[in-house]
Amino acid sequence: MPAALRRIPAGVISAIVALIVWQIIGSVGPLAGDSFATATEAISALWTLLGQPGFWLAFWETFQMAAIGFAISLAVSVPLGILIGLSKFSYRSSKFVFDVLKVIPPIVLIPIAILVIGPTMAMGIALVVFANVFSMAIQTAYGVRDADPVLLETMRCYRMNIWQQVRYARLPSAAVQIGIAMRLALGASLVVAIVAGLVGGAGGLGSFLALTQSSGNADQTYAVILFLGIIGVSLSRLLVRGQRRLVFWSGR
Predict the structure, then answer these.
(1) In the chain, what are the domains?
(2) Residues 6 or more apart in contact with residue 106 via CB below 8 angstroms
(3) CA gap 191, 104 in Å, rounded
C-alpha cells in the first residue's frame, strides 16, 4: 500500500467506499428512482438544510431531549447501581426485574406516554430515561460486584468503612462498566429522541423527518439520516476520548 494511503484514517476510507456504493445503487441499481436519493443528492440537500434556521431549531430540540434524558439516566442509575451492587441479595433479586425492563422497547410506551404526559419534549425525555436507566443501573451494579475481592479484604483488615471501599475500590472497578453503559446509552438516547418526534409528535428532528418523508422529499429525508449518523459517530468518539482520559487505568 502506498505511504500516502497509509496516512489516511481507515474510517475515512470506509466512509468513502460506502458513499460510492450508495451512489452506484441509487443511480443504476434496482433502487434507482425518485424515492431513493443518491449520495450526492443527500449531501447536497444536507448542505442546503444546514443553512436553514428551522433545521437547527429541530436539531436543538432533539439534542435537548437526548442530553437531558441521558443526564437524568446517569444521575439516577449510577447511585442506584452502586447501592444494588453493595448487597449480594439486592443484586440477585433486582437483576431479573431490571433485565426484563431494559429489553422493553420505549416505542411501545409512546401511546401511554402521550396519554399521561402529552406529545411534548417532556415525553421524549421520559422515554430516553426509561430506555437507559435500567441497563445503566445493572451494568453499574455488575461493576461494583466485580471489584477485586483481595483488595476489598485488605481494606477491611485496615478497618476502612464501606464508603471508603466504594470510593477507592468498588467505584474505580465499576467505572469501566459505567463507561460501556454510557456508550450504549448515548446512541440509544439519540435514537429514542428521534422516535419520540417521529412517532409521538414530540418535535425535533423526528417530526422534521416525518414531514420530509410525507411530503416526498427523499433527498432531504436521507440528508437528515446522514446528519444523524454523523452526529452520533462524533458524540461517540468524544465520549470515548473523555473516558480514556478519566478512566485511564482501564487501558481502553
Answers:
(1) 45-250 (1.10.3720.10)
(2) 127, 128, 130, 131, 192, 195
(3) 15
Residues 177, 181, 186: CA angle, nearest 5 degrees:
150
User: What does the DSSP 8-state code read for residue 109?
Assistant: G
CA-nearest of 230, 221, 244 to 41 is 221
Which residue in the block uniquely carries the three cell numbers 446517569? 74
| Contact between 182 and 236 (Cβ < 8 Å) | no
CA–CA distance, 196 with 207 (Å, rounded to integer) = 9
CA distance 117 to 125: 11
User: CA 219 to CA 33: how far, in whole Å?
Assistant: 11
- Specify the DSSP class assigned to residue 87: -
Dihedral in degrees, nearest 10, Cα atoms 40, 43, 44, 45 = 120
Cα–Cα distance measured from residue 117 to residue 112, given in angstroms and rounded to the nearest whole number: 8
| Among the listed residues 72, 107, 73, 132, the one whose alpha carbon sits nearest the alpha carbon of residue 206 | 107
Contact 193, 62 (CB under 8 A): yes
pLDDT digit string (tens) for the chain, length 252 residues = 555 556 666 667 788 888 888 888 878 767 676 678 888 888 999 999 998 998 999 999 999 999 999 999 999 999 999 888 888 888 888 888 888 888 888 888 888 888 888 888 899 999 999 999 998 999 898 888 888 888 888 888 888 888 888 888 888 888 888 888 898 899 899 999 999 888 887 788 888 888 888 888 888 888 999 999 899 888 888 888 887 787 766 655
User: Is 169 in contact with 147 (CB distance < 8 Å)?
Assistant: yes
